[in-house]
Amino acid sequence: MDSMEDKQLVNESFMLWVLIAQTADAIRRARHIEYTRFGISTERRAILFAILSNGGRATPVDITHHLFRELHSVTEMLKRMERDGLIERVKGSGKSKVEVTVTEKGLEIFNQSLSNEADTRIFSILTKKERELLESCLLKLRSQALADLGMRDWLLTYPLSREIVDKRESMPKHDRLKSAKVTESRQPREGGKL
User: For an engineered disulfide with 151, which of 40, 48, 135, 146 has Cβ 3.0 to 4.6 Å away?
Assistant: First the structure.
């Protein structure tokens, strides 16, 4: 990487990273302020989203993969959320001994938080075409980052309504994933490494 063009690409890549990080941090902060109206933090809302996106039931490991967090951090957050009545831990249906589900209280708070005005205010400055282009670019970048981490890309799913979640909670995990068209978020690369 000795050429001037290579150096420019390195500088451009770094500056794009800084811009993405600053934008994400600013949006996260604006959302955090908005979420305090609903009595929920951005992190807790992300966990509720991860559970609901997984068909209403998820293992702590599923949540760590969704949020790119360490298991011990997620476990501690889950304990506090259970204590606050937002989730409950139940006996696992597969390899995992524990799965978590969203309580009625957690679902109510999550649904209230969907009507936050920060997202609308921030993203409304972009045209529909610009939002679609941004989504496309971000999905490409996320896919490449996941590939660099040895992780398989997965489909973003929108949380399901409570009646669909109730119906799907009784399904085996394989069928829940299949019906949601979600792939496992972490798969070993060839050779067995993640």
Answer: 146
d(CA 180, CA 168): 10
* Tokens 């150096």, located at residue: 7
- Sketch the domain layout of the chain as residue ranges: 4-180
What confidence tens digit (pLDDT) does each residue in 55-96 have?
Answer: 889 999 999 988 888 999 999 999 999 999 999 999 888 787
Q: Look-up: residue for tokens 């969704």?
A: 66
41-59: string of b/e by CB count within 10 Å (b at 16+)? Answer: ebbbbbbbbbbbbbbbbbb
Do the Cβ atoms of 71 and 60 come closer than 8 Å? yes
CA distances from 136 to 2, 150, 160, 168 (A): 31, 21, 23, 30
Predicted structure pTM score: 0.69
